Amino acid sequence: MGLSINDVVIMAVSFLLVAILAPIAIGAIATGYNTSTWNPAVITIFQVLLPIIWIIGVAIAYVPRKGAG
What we know:
Layout: H1 5-32, H2 40-62
Helix pairs in contact: 1-2
């Protein structure tokens, strides 16, 4: 079972949306709210870990598994 063109388009659009919307959201969180009282670990989660978790989720969804199909 290979990737169809539909899967490739969906991945491309989702990567594009995350690349555009994630910095906007992070900027809105950083400037729209007073984050100086936030724990630095929480800010790190918003800026670093959420995009990494999203990439892992895409990989899990679209990378073929051994023995599947």
